[in-house]
Structure formats: C-alpha cells, structure tokens
C-alpha cells in the first residue's frame, strides 16, 4: 500500500513535471519562431544592401563581378542578376547545394517583378530561401535573385533543446529534493499521528507522537496525545474498577451467579463453583436449568423471572452437595429505561450457623438430660424416705448416700458449666506468670497417683528436666488434671499413662498418652464438643460431665496454643499440646 507521503510527492512531482514540459515546449516554440524571423529580417537587409550595390552599377552589362563575388562569399549567398529579357547577366554560383536554382529562376521570371515591388520571398525547402526584387539601372530594368541556405538553424534548435532539457532536468532534480524535504516535513507528523492512532486502535494507550511544531500538524499531534492520555487514564481507571469488582466478587464469601434474559449464565464466582463442585468452563454460557439439578434452585430462579421481585429463601441441598444449608437471595437486573437484563442469585452458606444452632439445641437438651437424671434420683429417693423408709436405718443410709452422690454429680455439672461459661467469655483474662512446666506436671502426677494406684495404673513423667513458660498456672494445672483423669477413666486397669515434655526454642510440646480403649477416627473431631461421649454408658458411670475436654480446648486456645488428638481403637489415645513460651507476644 502506497504511503501518503509517496502519493503526495508523486502528485507534486507529476504536476511540476507537466508544468516544466509545457514551459519547455513553449520556450522552444518561442525560440523556434524567433530565430527564423531574425534570420529573415537579416536576409532582407542583406538583400536590400545587395540591390543597392547593383543599382549603383553603371549598367547591367558592366557589373563588377569581382565585387559581387566577394559579397557572395562574405554573405554565403548565391547572387543572380537578370536583365529585362530574363537573361542571366551575373551568377555567383558559389552555393552548389541549391539544386533547384534553375527552377526557382523560372518561377521568379514568371512573377515579372519590378522596382516598386517589395522584396519577394520564396521558400524552396525548409532550409533554402530565395529572395528577389526588381531593379532599374538607367533605362534598363532587371531582377536581383539571392538564394541562401541556413543549416545552422538546426544546430541552434538542437542547442536550444539541449539547454532546455539540461535546465529542466536540473530544475526537476532540485524540485524533487526540495519537494521531498517539504513533503517529509509536512507528512512526518501525519505519519507519526497515523502510527499512534493505529497503536491506540490496537489497545496500546501508552503510544505518543512528537509535538515539535506549532502549526496545524503540531495541533493534530497535540490533540492525539491528549486523546491517548485520556484513553489511558480512562482504561486505567476502568481496569482498576474492574479489578476491584472482580476481587470483590471472587472474595465476597458467598456464591454469585448472573443469568441473562435468555436464561444463560454469564457470570459466576469461585465460591459458587466450590458450593456446587463445578468448573467454570462447564457453567458459563449454559442454561441455568441444565446446570442446577436441584428443583428448589430452579423454582427460585423462575420465580424471580416471573415476578421481577426480590426473593429470599433458605434451601437445604441434597447429599450430592454435602448437605449444605444455603440462604439464596435472588433479584432482577433492571437497566436504563427499565430494560430487563436478567437476574442475579447470591448463595450464602449458612451451614455453620445451622450447625451452631443445632449445637445450642443439643446443649440445651444435654443439659436438661444431665440435670434431669440426678434431680429425678434425688426426688425419687426423697419421696421414698418421706413415705416411711426413714424408719429403716439401713435403707435411710443407702438412700441418703445415693442422694449425696447425685447432689455431688449435679454440683460438678453446674460447676463445669459455670467454668466453661467463664472461659468462653470475651473478656476472660489469665493470671500470667512465669513457671516451670516440669514442676507443674510433677504436681499433677503427685495429685493423681493415689487415684491411679486404686486401678493399678502408673503415671510416668518423661522428657525435659525443666521448661519455663508464661501462662496461668491454675488453668494449665486444670488442663493436665483433666487429661490425666480422662486417660485413667478410659484405660484398662494396670495400664500406664505417659506424660512427655519436650522443650523447643520458642514452644513447649506436651504429650499425654494412654493405652486405653481409644476411639474411631470419625469421632475425633467431635470429642471437644460439649457433652459428647465416645462410650456413653461407661463415661456416664465414671462420673464425668462431658464438659472437661471442651474446657481444656478453650484454656489452651486462650494461651495461644494448639491441641490435637491421635487415637487407635483398643490401642490408646494421645493428646498433643503446643504452648508458646512467651504468651504476651501472641495475645
């Protein structure tokens, strides 16, 4: 494709070339007409001189041949003088190139020229001319005929055209050079502006053109640069807004899906794909009725389409979606001029809220159940005593012992509930002090050895000789007493409980393990729930309230620590606790 600069330069050179050719032709024609006229005027003057010299002769028969021979040689003309009888009285015969001389003499004789006539001109050939005029010498008349050639006129024409060609060629070359510079000067800004415009069309909004002039092309470059800057700022702003919107959509924590007016899905976010276990390529540009297998979701979307009203509903998805509880919010998308664009559905995962709600319900039920049992026992035995059993000392002692035991159990339950409530409070504070964890574990061992010996069990304290940490000594002692007590409760007689202390650079690891009944893997995540028991029958008979491990977990978390469990059925259970040495830097 020819560039604008080449087209402009070609048009300019073509125009100038046509002008120069026309000018050359005009000048050539002027010179061509000028020289013949000048030669003719000169020839006529020379003829007049020759005629005057002839008329000065005494007679035609006494003409001085030598004089006219000299004149003929000097003027390079053939002079012929005829008398009144058309007889040649003199002929210089010095111009042998005139082959048609005799024929021209006869033609002139036929014209019967006299002195009163002006000089007659006869064109024989292009470069041969004859002049004739009548003369009178005394009483005698005659005719002077002069023939001449002008071969030099061709040389003059050739020189003229050579000069014109050289001149016009040099002028054309100079004009091409000057025109090239001029077109380059005026088309360069246009080319630069064109390239920048092409780059802008491609999306490269950083492209700029030069602004080195103050004329119209400079104004064009300045306007294009302003346009490029405005486009760049607009695109940057749009990109920032789009990135913000995309980040918000992808990280909003709720599933989002947008459906156009034809029912095709045009936008989804990552939480939605995670909710329904889908891939984005399988969802985009598909009809929503083909994507949602749950009729509840389809019905909600159809309701928004039909009513064009906001809809909010809680849905419980089937097992294929991990038994999720979702709160779905649907709303129509209305554009400018009330144009219907489609709908948007937002899926809030409320499974955890439902689980917490169920946990609260279970907690209330468990507390009611745990409290009901001792109260029922106390009430039953009290009524029995009031009905007359007090008279029987043996029965009285047995019933009162049972009442005391159930009262202690009820008291322990209430105390653990109060303790758990206190630990879970937002403003719960620890009495931080520096302690040797080895000494604390030794105290726990000493406290629990008597109870362990009753079951024939031993408690071993292994690991580091000392390990200083910051923490609440009473709360940590409560943790390890609870763990050791649980190990004793769920272990077989004559077993062993091992407490391992390991000191690291910034943390302390404690492991409490036993060789008891253990538990299944699916039960491990639930053992820290309130009132959860692995072996409900045995644990209830052991006197536990089911709140100990819940309290343990909260105390460890308040100390910025972690607790994990490893267990194998019929082989034993191990609780691993990790506590930071400097708790103040982690709270």
UniProtKB/TrEMBL annotation:
CDD domains: HAMP (cd06225), HATPase (cd00075), HisKA (cd00082), PAS (cd00130). Gene3D superfamilies: 1.10.287.130, 6.10.340.10, Histidine kinase-like ATPase, C-terminal domain, PAS domain. The keyword Mitochondrion does not apply. Its EC number is 2.7.13.3. GO terms for molecular function: kinase activity. It is found in: Cell membrane. It is a multi-pass membrane protein. This is histidine kinase. The lineage of its organism: Bacteria, Bacillati, Bacillota, Bacilli, Bacillales. The gene is pnpS.
